[in-house]
């Protein structure tokens, strides 16, 4: 396994919380740039939670959601598969020693050169939703294991995908017949209810539709044994359907339409589920301007050193909602109507047009929780502002668990032996064997100001 390129700082925290790590950095007088604290314990917790709630569904992590090397290395070591959408994503995953069979090329409309690359490196599973894609695959990668992606109801999701991807169910017979004529191997069906789904029934309806397509495919001569239920799983608890509620509905629907004895392999493509709550962004107030509204109400305008061209691109592309949390004692400070802005010279670089914040000063810090999904992956360096540094925290109890995995030596090499100071941790660094028992690790503490 190759070591992480541009490895983020990895701190082994034995007697500190995530809050302690944040405090240590914001009290450093030389620290002015924004930074992210990545709680690796939270990612491991999510992996355990998935295995407990949906043991029949193998997670294939959506790399596009957050491709931070530490995240990819950790999930690879835990044993997830990967949902890749491009040549670069496939290469990044294969470079970790992940087998091609643990990758699904889940982009229904692919570049010819990327299909050729997938064929060359042994990635066979890939999705399609149109006839032209079948002809491309026949010419370039005829041994591919194809998965037909259907359009399902995604009206209850924050980010709807059906307008761009997924064939209508009525078009499935024609596409399967074309695939049959081309002597292509269609192994199963996939769907995506949309990113950040808020309605559990979207999954049950989609799974029922897939059952009908499996039966239809059998009549055409395909004996499918693969189902991809896509993504949409929430990354943190909110006012809508929780992961646990979705998992219960999915499990019941799979047992009804695809029972264990059917022999169908079932995967999903979770992204934000694994990483959203694990990342906390800390930004510095670099400037402040006092103004008044048309009604004469005083307004404080705060300028941060990260904005919509950086981590907060999620406001535009992911329809995210963010909340600034002051990292100072605000007990005796008055609350004022405020707005929050990014550092660039573009007026579109607005994080919050209107909010209420205690009176803050230049040089003080605010944090934003749940910043792990669709944030740094699409960040730019527009106007010369750099992306936040990632400081990954690896608590001792998680380190001890990771040592029980057969992939521990590779993970240790990836993180860097010198990054983990075992002498002060008083733990056993030898590889241990695991009995395979699934149990939920203690949930990491929430970040508090």
Polypeptide structure, described:
By secondary structure, this protein is of the alpha/beta class. The protein contains 13 helices and 19 strands. The strands form three sheets. Strands 1, 2, 13, 14, 15, 16, 17, 18 and 19 form a nine-stranded mixed β-sheet that branches. Strands 5-4-3-12-11-9-7-6 form an eight-stranded parallel β-sheet. A two-stranded antiparallel ribbon has the order 8-10. A hairpin with a 5-residue loop joins strand 13 and strand 14. The chain is elongated, with a radius of gyration of 23 Å. The chain starts with 8 loop residues before the first strand and ends in a 34-residue tail after the last helix. The modification N6-(pyridoxal phosphate)lysine is found at residue 64. Its EC number is 4.1.1.17. Keywords: Lyase, Polyamine biosynthesis, Pyridoxal phosphate.
Could you provide a short overview of the structure?
With 449 residues, the protein is of the alpha/beta class.
Please count the beta strands (DSSP E, at least 2 residues each): 19
The low-confidence runs, each spanning 5 or more residues with pLDDT under 50, are 1-10, 421-442, 444-449
Q: What structural category characterises the helix and strand content?
A: alpha/beta
Biggest beta sheet attributes = 9 strands, mixed
Oligomer: single chain
Separate helix tally: 13
Compute the average pLDDT.
Answer: 86
- The portion of residues forming beta strands comes to 15-25%
InterPro entries: Ala_racemase/Decarboxylase_C, De-COase2_CS, De-COase2_N, De-COase2_pyr-phos_BS, Orn/DAP/Arg_de-COase, Orn_de-COase, PLP-binding_barrel
EC number: 4.1.1.17
Family: Belongs to the Orn/Lys/Arg decarboxylase class-II family.
Subunit structure: Homodimer. Only the dimer is catalytically active, as the active sites are constructed of residues from both monomers.
């Amino acid at each position: 396994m190759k070591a992480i390129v541009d490895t983020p700082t990895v701190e082994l925290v034995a007697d500190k919380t995530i809050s302690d790590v944040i405090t240590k950095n914001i009290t450093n007088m030389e620290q002015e740039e924004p930074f992210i604290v990545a709680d690796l314990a939270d990612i491991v917790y999510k992996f355990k939670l998935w295995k407990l709630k949906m043991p029949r569904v193998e997670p294939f992590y959506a790399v596009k959601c957050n491709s931070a090397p530490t995240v990819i290395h950790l999930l690879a070591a835990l044993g997830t598969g990967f949902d890749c959408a491009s040549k670069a994503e496939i290469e990044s995953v294969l470079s970790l020693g992940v087998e091609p069979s643990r990758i699904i090329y889940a982009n229904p409309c692919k570049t010819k050169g990327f299909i050729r690359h997938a064929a060359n490196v042994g990635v066979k599973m890939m999705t399609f939703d149109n006839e032209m894609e079948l002809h491309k695959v026949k010419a370039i990668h005829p041994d591919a294991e194809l998965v037909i992606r259907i359009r399902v109801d995604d009206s209850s999701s924050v980010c709807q995908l059906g307008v761009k991807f997924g064939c209508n169910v009525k078009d499935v017979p024609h596409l399967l017949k074309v695939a049959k004529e081309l002597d292509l191997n269609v192994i199963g069906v996939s769907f995506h209810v949309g990113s950040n789904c808020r309605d559990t029934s979207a999954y049950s309806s989609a799974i029922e539709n897939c059952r009908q397509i499996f039966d239809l495919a059998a009549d055409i001569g395909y004996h499918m044994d693969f189902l991809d239920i896509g993504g949409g799983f929430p990354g943190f608890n909110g006012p809508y359907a929780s992961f646990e509620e979705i998992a219960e509905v999915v499990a019941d629907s799979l047992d009804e339409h695809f029972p264990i004895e059917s022999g169908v392999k079932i995967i999903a493509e979770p992204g934000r589920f694994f990483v959203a709550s694990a990342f906390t962004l800390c930004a510095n107030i670099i400037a402040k301007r006092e103004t008044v509204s048309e009604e004469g109400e005083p307004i404080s305008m705060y300028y941060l050193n990260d904005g919509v061209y950086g981590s907060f691109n999620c406001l535009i592309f992911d329809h995210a909602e963010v909340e600034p949390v002051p990292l100072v004692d605000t007990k005796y400070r008055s609350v004022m109507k405020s707005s929050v802005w990014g550092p660039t010279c573009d007026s579109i670089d607005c994080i919050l047009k209107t909010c209420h914040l205690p009176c803050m000063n230049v040089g003080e810090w605010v944090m934003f929780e749940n910043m792990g999904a669709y944030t740094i992956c699409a960040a730019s360096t527009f106007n010369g502002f750099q992306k936040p540094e990632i400081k990954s925290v690896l608590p001792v109890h998680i380190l001890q668990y990771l040592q029980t995995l057969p992939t521990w030596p590779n993970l240790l090499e990836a993180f860097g032996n010198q990054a983990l100071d075992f002498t002060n941790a008083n733990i056993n660094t030898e590889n241990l064997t695991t009995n395979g028992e699934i149990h939920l690790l203690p949930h990491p503490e929430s970040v508090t100001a």
